[in-house]
Amino acid sequence: SAVISQKPSRDICQRGTSLTIQCQVDSQVTMMFWYRQQPGQSLTLIATANQGSEATYESGFVIDKFPISRPNLTFSTLTVSNMSPEDSSIYLCSVTSSGNTIYFGEGSWLTVV
Amino acid sequence: DAKTTQPPSMDCAEGRAANLPCNHSTISGNEYVYWYRQIHSQGPQYIIHGLKNNETNEMASLIITEDRKSSTLILPHATLRDTAVYYCIVGGSDSWGKLQFGAGTQVVVTP
Q1: Which spans in B15-107 are helix H?
Q2: Nearest C-alpha of chain A: how many angstroms from B66?
Q3: pLDDT digit of tens for each residue in chain A (113 aa)?
């Protein structure tokens, strides 16, 4: 199985600021994804983090608001830009591993005040 | 919209088997059935997945009907630590890795 570390695990941010979340995997993986889980809701896919190229965003999510980097096969970042209280969520990184298995990190809890 | 339908909640007695149903009537031939659970304040934990055949691992068993339109996750001996939201998700090679989560089933295991 893949071990996924996310940083920060939790943060409180001022509205209007930006925060970058890191996702580090202990092995090379083919695909990495970013999800958002708003309070009391299920998970929603934000984008696919593509290695060496621009991320692929799902409907309702745009690069200006959620820029994503993936410089190599073990690391990705998600930035939440110009935050508002509506961005208060858990942000989760997931990766695909061998045997079609998909693993999630523990998430980054973001509160915007 | 999610491709699966699950009951919103179910209770289970500690030590008994928990059988969690899931309907996925529109599943296509190359789509897998995945099960995850999420305990409050944690990331989703992978449980098991399957394509056609029944699967078993150290956590659970997955029973998929022959027509693949529904499945059941079985926790053989539920413990209090199995209290969580359980998600049944379908995903395939054309969208490999991209999981569409529904509302899941809130399972409460009681002493």
Answers
A1: none
A2: 21
A3: 789 999 999 999 999 999 999 999 999 988 899 999 999 899 999 999 988 889 999 999 999 999 999 999 999 999 999 999 999 999 999 998 776 788 999 999 999 99
Contact between residue A96 and residue A76 where contact means Cβ atoms under 8 Å apart: no
The whole-number pLDDT of residue A86 equals 96
Neighbours of A33 (CB within 10 A): 25
Q: CA A69, A71, A75, A78: dihedral to nearest 10 degrees?
A: -10
Measure CB to CB from residue A42 to each of B32, B98, B102 and give the nearest one. Answer: B102
pLDDT over 60 at B1, yes or no: no
In order, the DSSP letters of A38-74 are: -TTS-EEEEEEE-TTS--EEPTT--TTTS-EEEEETT
Q: Do the chains contact at A43 and B97, CB–CB below 8 Å? A: no
SS3 A108: strand
Of B32, B36, B103, the CB nearest to A100: B32
As a whole number of angstroms, the distance between CA A75 and CA A1 comes to 16
Q: Give me the pLDDT at residue B38, please.
A: 95
